[in-house]
Amino acid sequence: VATRLAYGTALSRIGQTCDRVIGLDGDTKNSTFSIKLRDVKPDQFVECFIAEQNLVGVAIGCAARGRTIPFVSTFAAFLTRSFDQIRMGAISQTNCNFAGSHVGVSIGEDGPSQMALEDMAMFRSVIGSTVFYPSDAVSTERAVELAANTLGICYIRTGRPNQPVIYSPEECFCIGKGKVVRTAGPTGDHLTVVGGGITLTEALKAANILAAENINIRVIDPFTIKPIDAELLAKAVKETCNKVLTVEDHAPEGK
């Protein structure tokens, strides 16, 4: 299940339970799956077309005085066009949620012009922001729920390709708390590997290959990039003899 599809499913679900939830899109609703909200709650959906600065401005206006809980969605690469509006929204203490899809080189055939490789750096720099990087359908749905109830600017990074479901529906997620997805115990791991989104899936594949060679690695899902679970990471690195590898689908600067 692609995390972008899980985003649309979660948005539709919370939109049906709370009429203050609205979706806004930049003419990418078929790809971000915000169309799932439009199909069940058309009065809670605003199509802003290919005008991302206006898209964000409308969302911030809708959020004024807590009138709505807006979720803005488009390709993550296109949100770079509206950084000024996002920044000013944060300065104005607005509560607005963003979902950027088609991130990283994993979008493949869509091409380099649509590969978001700067999005986490951009949103991490926003004052008071929260940055989610869910790795499967379950964690994506929890990210949407948490974002709807979190003050400030929230960003949810979703991907194009299908990914396996890692977590059970009962799994609990918290902002600033990561997950140890695989471990051989406090003294059994040779290396800590940190991955999010599609890179967590690839890290788990690598763990299976290495395990066949009697090499155990600890795989960590950070869930939120801002705030990061520094305590969990420090503990894992210490227990793996200060050996850590991050697997990323983002430019090296600013992530």
TrEMBL record:
Transmembrane segments: none annotated. Coiled coil: none annotated. The keyword Calcium applies. Keywords: Calcium, Magnesium, Metal-binding, Thiamine pyrophosphate, Transferase. The keyword Transferase applies. Its cofactor is Ca(2+); thiamine diphosphate. Pfam families: Transket_pyr, Transketolase_C. Its EC number is 2.2.1.1. GO terms for molecular function: metal ion binding; thiamine pyrophosphate binding; transketolase activity. It comes from the Eukaryota. Homodimer. Belongs to the transketolase family. This is transketolase.
